[in-house]
Amino acid sequence: MHTELVSRWVRLRRWIRYSYLRIMRLGATPHCIALGLALGIFIGFMPIVPFQTVAVLTLAFIFKGNKIAAALGTWISNPIDLPFFYYGLYLVGRWVLPFDGPGFDPKHLEMSQLIATGWELFAMMVTGGLLLGIPASIATYFITRRMVVGYRKRRMLRLLRKRLGRKAK
After folding, report:
1. From the CB of residue 11, how many other CB atoms can be counted at a distance below 10 Å?
2. Which of 43, 110, 132, 155 is the most buried (most CB within 10 A)?
3. Measured in whole angstroms, how far is the alpha carbon of residue 111 from the centre of its chain?
4. For every residue of 74-132, which 3-state class applies, written as one string?
């Protein structure tokens, strides 16, 4: 059990590192990368599970954000944490909206299933998604932009030092 848990943790860390490097090395401007990731985070907070990728790629095309970063951003709501994530959206939406809808059922998480349960439930989750997704996407934009600029500066300095080191010999 312990080795299995360690193995999962190692795989998760590798996937996070891979995703980080993939975003940092994209051949786009820091603004485009940050905008794409921010759009992905925003759409990831929306309870539209089978349509997240289509929605975020459309928005990335319209707003000229990086499509790869946008698609990666939607993974904030992934199959592992989706029931907990959506339950959080439900709680926030229920706290804000004046009506009381049906209860949350973690077995029905696709958009069509949520709507079939009742528009009130879907409205609660969209409200929770907006209230949490807007500040999360704004923060993501500024943090990502800063990280991309910093990464590129460090990389350029490293390459410059390497190049100057060769010429000195």
Report:
1. 10
2. 43
3. 18
4. HHHCCCCCHHHHHHHHHHHHHHHCCCCCCCCCCCCCCHHHHHHHCHHHHHHHHHHHHHH
Burial (CB < 10 A; 0-12, 13-18, 19+), residue 77, is buried
Which residue has better confidence, 81 or 91? 91
Q: Which residue in the block uniquely carries the two structure tokens 């909206």?
A: 97
Structural domain harbouring 38: 2-168
Interval 125-137 mean pLDDT: 95
CA distance 34 to 138: 10
Helices 30-44, 52-63: axis angle to 10 degrees equals 150
pLDDT tier for residue 169 given thresholds of 50, 70 and 90: low
Residues 6+ apart with CB under 8 A from 57: 67, 70, 71
Q: Based on the structure, what is the number of domains in the chain?
A: 1
